[in-house]
Amino acid sequence: MLLCHGPETNACLTQPQLAALNKLYSGAKTSTGEQVFPGYSPGGEADPAGWPLWVSGPAPGQGWIFIFATQYFKNMVFNNPDWDFRTFDVDRDTRSADNKNAQDLNATDPDLSRFKARGGKLILYHGWSDAAIAPAAPIRYYQALQKKMGAAQAGEFVRLFMVPGMQHCAGGAGPDSFGQQGVAAGDARHDINAALEQWVERGEAPAEIITAKRREDGSVIRTRPLCAYPAVAQYKGSGSTDAAENFTCRVP
After folding, report:
1. Based on the domain organization, do 211 and 152 belong to the same domain?
2. Tens-digit pLDDT profile for residues 155-178
């Protein structure tokens, strides 16, 4: 439906544009088909804080992802300010990046046994509309952690909350305010930092956290429960769809 069947307009995409879009959704892969990093999730592409900022940018070469990626390879991998991104080879250059920086930058080790042994608690959260870091990335890490340590053990110290409609860290169409922007300053039911504090100090693990969509003056537009993955918020069938109490967390 997105393919132009006549002259190119802002209402359709050309075949090369569609091919590029499919690559963004499918994620980077090696020549053998191994996924280097997952692709973006559909939704939120038109949000000003999403693809127009991170992916497409206001003009070619001005998207933040392009700027971050090219400057990273120029300055942190190849130490060559004249490096041309058109020469990028996903097999060779990903390997070069890992050899140079993985030990310092990659946060992919699923073995958190020492962290757990010290009494550590970890809460992960991520927006489903994030245009900076693919939403599937934390899910993939969480599942790798469960596989490495066992689901029961992982459940003792790790929770993942996926936030519908939220862009990178905050923003987007969905409710995006749940205390993630600073130190604990509220109750554990509405503040993710307070929930972490309560888990560490009282042993009470969070099953859900209430998030809100707010106007510029701070007043609340709507609320939703964030559910510990893999549970999602489901409407009970009655009451306002803008009120969190009319939703329940269930595993699909």
Report:
1. yes
2. 999 999 999 999 999 999 999 999
